[in-house]
Amino acid sequence: MHEVKLPDGIITLSPLRLDDAAAHLAGEDEPLVRWLSGGPGTREGVDINIRHCREQWEMAGPLRAIGIRVGVDEALAGTIDLRFAAEGLAPGQVNVAYGLYPSWRGAAWPPARSSWYAASEGGKEAVIRVEPENAASAAVAQRAGFIPGKHTHGEDGTRLDWYIRDLGIDTQRRPRSPKSA
Fold first, then answer.
1. Are 99 and 79 in contact (CB under 8 A)?
2. Which letter does DSSP use for residue 135 in this model?
3. What is the pLDDT of residues 81-105, one digit of tens each?
């Protein structure tokens, strides 16, 4: 994936870059740590993760970590991880995990926009797995067109509620822009 400027002229999606580390650390807060990363980041750890994500892109691995960039200066607003293979997923399902920095939190467009890319790579169904206590993430998933699905448990026994979106619809209609999210 090269940078993709979306038709609204506001959002650019691209693989994470090494120079994203500082912006990521600046945007990290308690909810992002709690629901997504599981612990506060360090510069060294973020650099290692970004290098791993770059390697996944280069080898067409199952992980595609995307930087969400907003505006003319393409400020990093958050990240999206698409996993085309993961425990519990059926063939054609893509796990979508996203983390938005505080000023962008609550927007429904990141998971909707990433669905376009997942569909272009052969994904048939996008899945967002959310802990039941994370009501904000569940609300974002539903605003982005994901519907409640089954319930499973993660490797650590945590209950996960699934929200599912048929990616076939993503080739037929455009997701809403950030202005309407």
1. yes
2. H
3. 999 999 899 999 999 998 889 888 7
